[in-house]
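Incident log, support desk, overnight shift.

02:14 A customer reports that sequence design results differ from what the structure should imply. Their input is reproduced verbatim below. On-call engineer (initials T.W.) acknowledged and began investigating.
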């Protein structure tokens, strides 16, 4: 053997040895088309096995993008026994396994597991016309274990048995009937809704009844003969809740999910003879309720979009802060009574939405009161207080305060509000006029909407105290008249 031949044989031997040692570490070099672009993909091959059995006949190999493995949805997950549906209109993949439903929108880093939004480390993509979804995320969501072997580069998915099929047939009586009825209509409904709204069912078991559109914040409930009059609303903004009651028992089960949007933290549906839907708020919301394609849509919206006229009424002090006291008056109690009187007049009028910074005897921070008005984006803020002065029983009368103009574009200023309220109060109560004043009270300083603080009278003055004790409703009426007049003079801008 000459030297040259020996070298050649040695090289071949080394090459052969290498190949056998690193069998499996083959590089694949293909062109991938996604995000409207061609990409050259050159990477070590990876494989997927299910319960130890390698899948060999994939028409599209698993792809590693940004360190995460994407696999062809249908081929891989149907091999695991899951049901995979591609919703073309909304570009979402539905993977169902047992009672778990995973909805994966294309090019989004959010997925929905039984209606609960989850962040994914990587996005699902359409690559070479194949729907490619993150292997690890979806497997974990279905509660499958994943074993990764870095030598063979095999991701082995350990599936778990589904209990549903057997359980459902063995369950007796009403429960089975209910489940079956619900399941039967699912397919058609899903398709109908999905072509019109971009929503996901929040549970897999009864997914034709309750849907949530996570992108636009809207809850859909299948309308099985419901009238809008069957629905009542309870705006418990002081408790951070917006509660809907439907006067019928719905064919669904209790469920909870977490939109975690700007408006809604979480949502619960509780089924009984009546159905209660509770929106736990991230900020104060109003609710737009309407019929949409056989569903009733509940859409949380900013209050300004629903109400044309909004007033925030602030009963001074509260809870551990009683305010001034004397002549049988406790400031926090009488301001709340006056605020309630005003609120009930606005509520029965119906043209003005009234929010209270506190609905009862509780502590609420001064800044919080003004921030509430700012968050709501109201048209007017009116704070009610009672004056007092030490060692002077003579001082008496009504005064109001304003600070910044806070003109929202319709010409109404804080001063105009303070002036109107002062005029109305002295006319109604017969108290003396101490004029509109200015002071850097926190509720005026932090407020961004036209805001006035009213000192109704002096509880340290016997005559004023008497007027106020007997004049709770008069105060409510005076402020109400002033508010209506101001809205007429300065129509709100939206
Ligand atoms: Zn006060």
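02:41 Re-run completed on a clean worker. Output:
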């Amino acid at each position: 053997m000459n030297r040259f031949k020996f070298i050649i044989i040695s090289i071949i031997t080394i090459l052969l040895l290498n190949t056998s040692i690193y069998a499996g570490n083959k590089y694949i070099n293909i062109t991938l088309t996604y995000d409207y672009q061609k990409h050259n993909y050159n990477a070590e091959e990876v494989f997927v096995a299910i319960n130890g059995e390698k899948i060999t006949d994939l028409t599209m190999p698993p792809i590693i993008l940004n360190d995460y493995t994407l696999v062809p949805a249908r081929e891989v997950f149907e091999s695991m026994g899951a049901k995979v549906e591609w919703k073309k209109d909304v570009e979402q993949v539905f993977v169902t396994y047992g009672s778990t439903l995973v909805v994966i929108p294309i090019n989004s880093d959010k997925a929905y597991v039984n209606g609960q939004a989850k962040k994914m480390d990587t996005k699902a993509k359409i690559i070479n016309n194949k729907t490619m979804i993150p292997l690890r995320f979806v497997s974990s969501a279905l509660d499958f274990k994943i074993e990764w072997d870095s030598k063979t580069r095999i991701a082995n998915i350990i599936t778990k048995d589904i209990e549903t099929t057997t359980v459902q047939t063995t369950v007796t009586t009403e429960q089975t009937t209910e489940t079956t009825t619900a399941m039967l209509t699912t397919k058609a409904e899903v398709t109908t809704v999905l072509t019109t709204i971009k929503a996901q069912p929040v549970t897999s078991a009864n997914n034709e009844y309750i849907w949530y559109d996570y992108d636009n914040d809207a809850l859909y409930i299948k309308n099985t003969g419901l009238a809008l009059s069957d629905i009542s609303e309870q705006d418990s903004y002081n408790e951070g809740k917006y509660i809907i009651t439907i006067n019928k028992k719905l064919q669904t089960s209790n469920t909870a999910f977490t939109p975690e949007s700007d408006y809604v933290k979480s949502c619960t549906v509780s089924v009984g003879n009546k159905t209660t839907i509770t929106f736990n708020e991230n900020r104060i919301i109003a609710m737009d309720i309407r019929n949409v394609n056989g569903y009733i849509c509940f859409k949380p919206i900013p209050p300004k979009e629903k109400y044309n006229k909004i007033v925030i009424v602030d009963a001074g002090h509260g809870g551990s802060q009683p305010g001034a006291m004397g002549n049988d008056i406790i400031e926090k109690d009488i301001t709340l009574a006056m605020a309630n009187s005003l609120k009930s007049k606005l509520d029965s009028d119906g043209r003005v939405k009234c929010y209270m910074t506190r609905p009862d005897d509780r502590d609420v921070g001064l800044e919080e009161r003004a921030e509430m008005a700012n968050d709501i984006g109201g048209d007017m803020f009116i704070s009610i207080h009672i004056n007092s002065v030490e060692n002077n029983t003579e001082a008496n009368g009504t005064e109001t305060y304003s600070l910044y103009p806070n003109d929202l574009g319709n010409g109404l200023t804080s001063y105009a509000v303070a002036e109107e309220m002062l005029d109305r109060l002295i006319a109604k109560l017969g108290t003396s006029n101490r004029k509109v004043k200015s002071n850097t009270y926190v509720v005026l300083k932090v407020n961004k909407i036209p805001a006035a603080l009213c000192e109704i009278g002096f509880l340290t003055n016997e005559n004023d105290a008497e007027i106020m004790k007997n004049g709770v409703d008069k105060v409510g009426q005076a402020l109400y008249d002033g508010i209506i007049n101001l809205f007429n003079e300065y129509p709100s801008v939206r």
